[in-house]
Amino acid sequence: MRTHALVPSLLLLGALSFTAACSSGSDSSSDVTDADGRPGSSATPSPVRTVDPSKIKGLRIVSHSSEQSSCPFATSYPDVPGAEAMTAAMRKDVEKRLTGFRSGQCEDGTPGTPPRELNISHQFLVASGDVLGVRLRTQDHSAAASGLSTTTYWYDGKADAYRTALGLVAEGSRDAFITALEDRLKGREGVDAAALDDTFSDPASRTAALDDMAITADGGLRVNLDRGEVGVPAAGALTVVLPRKTITPWLSAFGQRVQRQTMTPSPSLDLGVPHTSTPTAPAPTASGDDNTDCKKVTCIALTFDDGPAAPETATLLTYLAQYKARATFFTVGQNVAAHPDLVRAEARAGHEVGNHSWNHPDLTKLTPGQIAFQLNRTSAAIEAATGKAPTLFRPPYGAVNARVKAATTLSPVLWDVDTEDWKYPDADKVARSVITKARRNGVVLMHDIHPTSVAAVPQILRTLSARGFHFVTVSHLRATL
Ligand code: ZN
């Protein structure tokens, strides 16, 4: 974020093979790499292709987030059947960062001084043939440096092996590759030649620094270096693109397949696992208008944030249908992209689909352009899935201010019954919490990414129905009050 002001001057330095990255959101003008919502820079050469994750069979997005402003974190990474070793590597990295953040911020830290937030989002780079590539982008506002780091993870379905970014380059060619990389970095503003030599001469630090590499749409190799890794922090993150002609002879056999599958993707990913059945969304049961009159009867609005998730959301829809209950889903854009079928099922069953940003950042820390990007991209994904654009948004962590409101036409929705279900993965406790706190015209906050929260729902619906509650959407509640 703090690199932003430096971008214009650094862009002036940009030759075709080198540019200062405007954080990592510069993969292409239509890309969503920038998890903070900054649209990609058209000045960046050689865009990386994007992938439609809804085509990946059996995909699960592993999400975890809080909704508490004193402990703001949101993490996600994909779990693709057949690529377990890669999933394990991502899980290890994510859990390490999250554990560090939570122990420093949520248990011992002093909230708000300085403002801290952890956000880990994901993006598919390749999901084609026997090649899978994912980039994780971590924005850690608690870190001493810029707090932004990116890492790519690769899976080689042919060898059934997880590969690091450096695995794209053949071992015998790494020296030549490093030399070419150094040539392009040395002499650039902010790059420390001595630090560069130190970093690249030591195998361990070389692997750590070169942990984000991907093939561009035109076959080049794009290397992203986090801020401060080989330069003074003021230089920001750095990106080098080695053109196809240069890099091709240095690629490993796996790297060559990544290059091929990136430039001419196959229609699907095939990691040699038997067909995994995707979670089936239940058939619609409660479509049509809801004529519940909340002036006459006791209404309550259940809201479910952070999804959709497979299989939890499909299970939840089944429970809601059994009690003819309607709810509001505040969906996260990157999960909508992975599971548009579940969002479609929500809408068809008469539930309301709202916007909860693309990847769950604290919107009050973003610029108006970034806020708009976060919300607009998510609204577009919801509309693509359901045919209807949302009218409501729930700001992550309930963090909203005048700047956020001014950046969107969506209406903000907070809550007045908090179950803290993200903190207590205990179905009975979640159910008791909702049942105890339920009140007429209340808006209840839950999360359908947690199996325990979904498991609490039948007890909630059974008990509150018996007490005369009617379960309506947020817009219905607002319209009839
Ligand atoms: Zn949330």
Question: What does this 3D model show about the protein?
Answer:
The protein is of the alpha/beta class and 481 residues long. It folds into 2 domains: 6-18 and 278-479, TIM Barrel (Alpha-Beta Barrel), CATH 3.20.20; 53-263, Fervidobacterium nodosum Rt17-B1 like (Heat Shock Protein 90). It is built from 15 helices and 18 strands. It has helices at 7-13, 84-107, 174-185, 193-201, 203-209, 244-247, 253-263, 312-322, 333-338, 340-348, 368-386, 402-406, 427-437, 451-466, 474-480, and strands at 18-20, 60-65, 73-79, 118-128, 131-140, 148-156, 161-163, 213-215, 221-225, 238-242, 298-305, 327-331, 352-355, 392-393, 411-412, 417-418, 442-447, 469-471. Strand 4 (118-128) and strand 5 (131-140) form a beta hairpin. Zinc ion binds next to loops.
Major sheet description = 6 strands, mixed
Helical segment count: 15
Radius of gyration over all CA atoms, rounded: 23 Å
State the domain count: 2
SS-based structural class?
A: alpha/beta
CATH A-level architecture of the largest domain: Alpha-Beta Barrel
Helix content: 25-40%
Q: Shape, please?
A: elongated
Span of the ends, CA to CA: 42 Å
Compute the number of strand runs.
18
**Bound small-molecule species:** zinc ion
